[in-house]
Amino acid sequence: MIVTLTLNPSLDRTIDVDRLVQGTMTRARSARIDPGGKGVNVSRALLANRAPTVAVVTSGGADGEQLVRLLEGDGIAVHAVPVAGRTRSNVTIVEPDGVVTKVNEPGEPLSRDELDAVADAVLAEAEGASWVVACGSLPPGVPSDIYARLCEFFASAGVRVAVDASGPALPAAVGAGPHLVKPNRDELAEAVGRPVASVGDAVEAACELRERGAGAVLASLGADGAVLVDEDGVTAGTAPVAEPRSTVGAGDALLAGFLAAGARGAPALAEGLAWGAAAVRLPASRMPRPGDIRRDIVRIDTRPDLGRSLIA
Ligand SMILES: Nc1ncnc2c1ncn2[C@@H]1O[C@H](COP(=O)(O)OP(=O)(O)O)[C@@H](O)[C@H]1O
Ligand SMILES: O=P(O)(O)OC[C@H]1O[C@](O)(COP(=O)(O)O)[C@@H](O)[C@@H]1O
């Protein structure tokens, strides 16, 4: 069982327009609403591929109720923690040439009691779980070490923790020794304080996060695929997509596939890449089902000296 935690879930509103012109009224060609937030997407991808999962989410106001209804309608086991603040909406505007403009609301603050209620929910669901996966931005006012505290708590409980975070929450979590972190290129660069332009830069930065405490680093690199740096060394892979539809949720699908395949080594990386590529071929933040996933396009490099060759 994989328990996901989304402290800042969202209704993901995807709007297709012919052309987005700032400062003008544009009539949309179509629009859709999906349940969102990074942990939510991980659970959505896992469920779509029949991997057992529970999504722990905060839920506030009518939008929070709609989020829970959408998830339950998709058959996802949800542990919703009621909160006073309204659940946010994240808007993605897509133009025919593939240009995507995304505006994410910050979300509403959580009170101390609400954070305690979330902790109790995760604790209850984590009983017997193989992973707790904490993903996404933190609502305003939530301490940036919240994921770190989760890592410390579950380390003593023998439950593995994966973190997909941005900003100060990522280095704080790394220092608490998570089993796995899943930064994208920008998050990796921010965590090490230098650009990550090449795959070699990503490997070097991932090695630094391991030295600082992370057990394994699954670094996603957009169209350049992903690299995995763990106790077995460095593995890199790609899964090219000729006509990307939407990259929203691709990182979450990559993480879900990696976890579903055992979260270690080349086979798990390959599965994550296949799920990530499948998500990119789908519109909005649709998560791939078994029929969407193509494993033949995945290329994995497992040369033993790969790390040195990429960094040199
Ligand atoms: N343009 C693309 N072509 C092919 N695969 C892609 C593309 N964009 C993303 N992916 C896949 O999705 C994964 C996650 O994408 P990325 O943008 O790095 O993460 P995030 O969504 O977390 O920012 C990548 O590792 C890759 O496997
Ligand atoms: O594209 P990614 O990084 O896989 O995640 C997509 C998800 O992240 C979100 O953009 C939220 O991200 P934040 O929590 O960082 O604001 C959601 O709208 C969307 O469901």
Question: Can you offer a commentary on this structure?
Answer:
By secondary structure, the chain is an alpha/beta fold. It is built from ten helices and 14 strands. Helix 5 links the parallel strand 9 and strand 10. The radius of gyration is 18 Å and the shape is globular. The model has no long low-confidence stretch (mean pLDDT 96). The structure holds adenosine-5'-diphosphate and 1,6-di-O-phosphono-beta-D-fructofuranose. GO terms for molecular function: 1-phosphofructokinase activity. Belongs to the carbohydrate kinase PfkB family. It catalyses: beta-D-fructose 1-phosphate + ATP = beta-D-fructose 1,6-bisphosphate + ADP + H(+). Pfam families: PfkB.
Distance between the termini: 40 Å
Q: Major sheet, described briefly?
A: 10 strands, mixed
Strand arrangement across the biggest beta sheet: 5-4-1-8-9-10-11-12-13-14
Fraction of helical residues: 25-40%
Q: Secondary-structure element sequence?
A: EEEHEHEEEHEHEHEHHEEEHHEH
- Care to count the β-strands? 14
Give Rg in angstroms: 18 Å
Low-confidence stretches: none
Name the bound molecules.
adenosine-5'-diphosphate, 1,6-di-O-phosphono-beta-D-fructofuranose
The general outline is globular
Annotation field: number of helices: 10
Quick check: average pLDDT?
96
Structural class by helix and strand composition: alpha/beta
Keywords: ATP-binding, Kinase, Nucleotide-binding, Transferase
GO molecular function: 1-phosphofructokinase activity
Protein name: 1-phosphofructokinase
EC number: 2.7.1.56
